[in-house]
Design goal:
Layout: E1 2-3, E2 6-7, E3 9-10, E4 13-14, E5 22-27, E6 30-35, E7 44-50, E8 53-62, E9 70-73, E10 78-80, E11 84-90, E12 102-108, E13 111-116, E14 120-126, E15 135-142, E16 159-160, E17 162-173, E18 177-179, E19 184-193, E20 198-202, E21 208-209, E22 213-216, E23 225-234, E24 240-252, E25 256-262, E26 266-268, E27 272-280, E28 288-293, E29 296-301, E30 305-311, E31 319-328, E32 334-346, H1 356-366, H2 370-389, H3 403-409, E33 412-416, E34 419-423, E35 438-446, E36 450-458, E37 466-474, H4 480-496, E38 505-509, E39 516-520, E40 525-526, H5 527-533, E41 545-547, E42 550-552, H6 556-575, E43 578-579, E44 588-590, E45 596-598, E46 605-606, E47 615-616, H7 628-633, E48 635-636, H8 638-653, H9 665-673, H10 686-694, H11 706-718
Parallel strand pairs: 10-17, 18-24, 26-32
Antiparallel strand pairs: 1-2, 1-7, 3-4, 5-6, 7-8, 9-11, 11-14, 12-13, 12-15, 15-16, 17-19, 19-22, 20-21, 20-23, 23-24, 25-27, 27-30, 28-29, 28-31, 31-32, 33-34, 35-36, 36-37, 37-39, 38-39, 40-44, 41-42, 43-46, 44-45, 47-48
Helix pairs in contact: 6-8, 6-11, 8-10
Length: about 725
């Protein structure tokens, strides 16, 4: 038995220096060499030779491998997530060749990640958060050994990585939606290394807090919004990491309710009292706003403001009035917020500005006499006699109508939130005012059927002292149908009520002819005139709006605001189920504050008692402002009012130009049927013209609602963008 060229054993005899560790074991002609306590220098080639026949021999190779695999990591085992790391594995004590192949293999948590047959295995990688605490090891896998022995050749010291990373933050809340005055717990849950972090809370109310958990014992509405938690930790190299999470918390609360009583909460008998309820800042928006008198509901609505008027305050109106907003919360409960005032009646006191009636009373008291008493009694007698007989003053005559038709149209209806009170001619309603309280002055306008007269009114509609008003009076010798239409217009204006963008009916005189319709005085004139007067014949110079001795140059923002105000008024009319039918810039008036108000309800349709808006009628209408279905079929709806509003928008954009200028009404009708629409003016932005065009859709149902139009124009009015380039407008023709 030879090891290399040296004799190790001859049969069973072990040769020096191998005695003690080598032995030959023979059994039935088989000789095995056993090596005890194998050492590194025992490795090599061993040859077994038959001494009788040296050609008979066998050779075996012995590899002795020491557990000398070395594992290191470049720099350090502590890194920051995202760093690049190199792992180094060395074994210099064995030659790996084809006779005894083997590999150095890196493992990450028992999963092979790199293998090489060289004496070193340097593996580079990027470590992330999930690699924190991972165990990296390298072992020699020599194929002369069974796999079960490979682990014995692994690195003695495994590498456990400390990967530091910024906090990941998650806010946990005891409730995502809560109510004001409730309790709430917010917790900032983090995953970080190192996990010694500093917490910083910024709440929606602006407060700053520390700590992982915040207990809020009394939630306020100021906490409605985003709550943020930031967690910060420090890394081994002195740098810091941070993470943030934001939670949107919805805090629900009742609305703030305001109440206004005009002229005051202590009034004289017969005065006009206006009660306004408004609400704001509720979440969610209240679904009902109502006014009650001593727990009896007077009026309710689903809007942010409502107005209730008492025409002729009496003893039955004395009491405690409450404005109440009702909110439906997320859990199905209701919240109530209210404000109230007691309205009392005071005894009238003489005014230094004595009116006609007080003057007469003054004379009666201080200058009593039979002649004066006789005159007063005679006047009372003849007035009463005229009323009882149903006669009219001077040149007026009784309406020549059928009995049922007369009864229908001579009933003047006062509608207040769905209630109707019918009054016969000759009876006085709360809207009626004595003619003696009016002083008619100059005529402002003279129409085909009525004239408009400026007048001074005494103590009208709850206004103390003298007020400027406009009185609409039918012309002399009107037709019966004109009288009926006039009364119907008064009736409709009563039912409409008040709105900031609707000309209000103050009072009326309908006990006998001539009938008076008394409205608020609009100093600014009509919108069409304002637009036309504010540009010169060349369209390059602009004059000022002169109202109440104040000059104002119209801007693009002013024009868009006009459009928004008209739309807001029409939105209100639609909510009152009223179809105007005659909307045009000429029928929009401006007050002293340059606020647009819609007027001329002579052709309007009140449809309070009808399930549908459609009405067919014969009337004095203008083709250029009418919708397709109105021209073709005589059908008028709120959607046809939307079409007319689109024409008003076009009038505003063009500063009062005539719609379809240069075309006859017959040409307008045929062109519309063929799909023609007035083109975009060059000085008008596409967004605004697109809104105009949407009003002229052939299909009424595809036209926007007035609510949608009001929202669109409100947004434009709030923008800084110039939607109408006024200085680029061309010349105008009023023909």
């Amino acid at each position: 038995m030879y090891r290399g060229s040296r004799l190790v054993a001859l049969r069973e005899d072990i040769q020096d220096p191998y005695t003690g560790r080598f032995e030959v074991v023979s059994e039935e002609g088989v000789y095995n060499l056993r090596i005890l306590y194998t050492a590194l220098d025992d490795g090599g080639a061993y040859e077994c030779t038959d001494v009788g026949n040296r050609t008979r021999q066998a050779v075996a190779f012995l590899y002795v491998i020491a557990n000398v695999t070395k594992c290191t990591v470049k720099n350090d085992s502590t890194v920051i997530a995202g760093d690049d790391v190199s792992f180094i594995c060395l074994n210099q004590e064995i030659i790996l060749d084809n006779n005894a192949p083997g590999d150095l293999v890196w493992y990450n948590n028992g999963k092979e990640v790199s293998r090489t047959s060289r004496h070193s295995n340097i593996w580079s990688t990027t470590l992330y958060k999930d690699d924190n605490g991972a165990v990296f090891s390298c072992q020699l896998e020599h194929y002369t050994l069974p796999p079960s022995k490979w682990s014995e050749l692994a690195c003695e010291d495994q590498i456990i990585m400390d990967v530091q990373f910024s906090p990941s933050v998650k806010i946990m809340s005891s409730a995502a939606v809560t109510m004001e005055d409730s309790s709430l717990t917010l917790a900032c849950v983090i995953d970080a290394n190192p996990n010694d972090v500093v917490y910083s809370w910024i709440l929606a109310d602006g407060s700053v807090n520390g700590g992982a958990v915040i207990d809020i014992g009394n939630v306020t509405r100021d906490l409605h919004g985003n709550q943020s938690c930031t967690a910060t930790n420090s890394f081994y190299d002195g740098t810091q990491g941070s993470g943030i999470d934001v939670l949107y918390l919805e805090v629900q609360y009742t609305a703030t309710v305001n109440m206004s009583v005009q002229p005051s909460n202590e009034v004289t008998e017969g005065s006009c009292v206006r009660i306004t309820c408004s609400m704001s800042d509720g979440n969610p928006d209240p679904y009902k706003l109502k006014l009650t008198l001593d727990s009896h509901e007077l009026i309710a609505a689903d809007r942010a403001e409502l107005t209730y008027e008492i025409k002729g305050f009496g003893t039955n109106d004395i009491g405690f009035y409450r404005c109440q907003a009702v909110t439906l919360f997320f859990d199905g409960t209701e919240g109530f917020s209210e404000v109230g005032q007691e309205i009392k009646m005071k005894m009238p006191r003489p005014s230094s500005n004595t009116g006609t009636v007080l003057f007469i009373v003054f004379l009666v008291i201080l200058v009593p006499g039979a002649a004066l008493i006789g005159i007063l009694l005679s006047s009372f007698y003849w007035k009463r006699k005229l009323k009882d007989k149903g006669t009219r003053r001077a040149h007026d005559s009784k309406l020549d109508l059928k009995e049922d038709e007369y009864e229908h149209y001579t009933s003047i209806t006062r509608r207040i939130e769905g209630e109707s009170v019918y009054m016969k001619l000759g009876e006085r309603s709360s809207f009626e005012v004595l003619r003696e309280f009016l002083y008619l002055r100059e005529t402002l306008a003279d129409g085909a059927f009525a004239r408009f007269v400026k007048a001074e009114a005494w103590n009208i509609a709850g206004r103390e002292g003298v007020s400027n008003v406009v009185v609409k009076i039918l012309k002399e010798r009107p037709l019966d149908v004109d009288k009926v239409d006039f009364l119907k217009e008064i009736d409709l204006m009563k039912s409409i009520g008040t709105h900031p963008n609707i000309v209000s009916l103050l009072d009326c005189c309908t006990e006998y002819e001539p009938f008076y319709m008394i409205m608020e005085f609009m100093e600014g004139g009509n919108l069409q005139g304002i637009l036309r007067n504010n540009r010169s014949a060349l369209g390059s110079a602009y004059t000022n709006v002169n109202i109440s001795n104040e000059n104002k140059t119209l801007t693009s923002a002013d024009l868009v605001t006009f459009a928004h105000q008209v739309s807001s008024g029409m939105e209100y009319l639609a909510s009152r189920e009223c179809v105007h039918r005659n909307l045009a810039a000429r029928n929009v008036l401006l007050d002293k504050n340059i606020v647009c108000k819609i007027y001329d309800f002579g052709l309007a349709l009140g449809v309070v008692d009808k399930p549908q808006y459609e009405r067919k009628t014969k009337g004095k209408l203008t083709i250029r402002w009418m919708a397709m279905e109105s021209i073709k079929d005589g059908v008028f709806t709120t959607k046809s009012d939307v079409w007319s509003f689109g024409v008003v928008l076009w009038e505003i954009v063009t500063m009062g130009n005539i719609p379809y200028q240069g075309m006859s009404e017959q040409e307008v009708t045929s062109s519309l049927r063929e799909g023609y629409r007035m083109p975009k003016p060059s000085h008008c932005e596409k967004e605004l013209y697109s809104t105009i065009l949407s009003c002229w859709d052939k299909n009424p149902e595809k036209r926007p609602t007035f609510s949608e139009l009001t929202a669109i124009l409100q947004k434009m009015a709030n923008d800084e963008k110039t939607y109408i380039k006024i200085m680029d407008i061309g010349s105008i023709s009023d023909d």
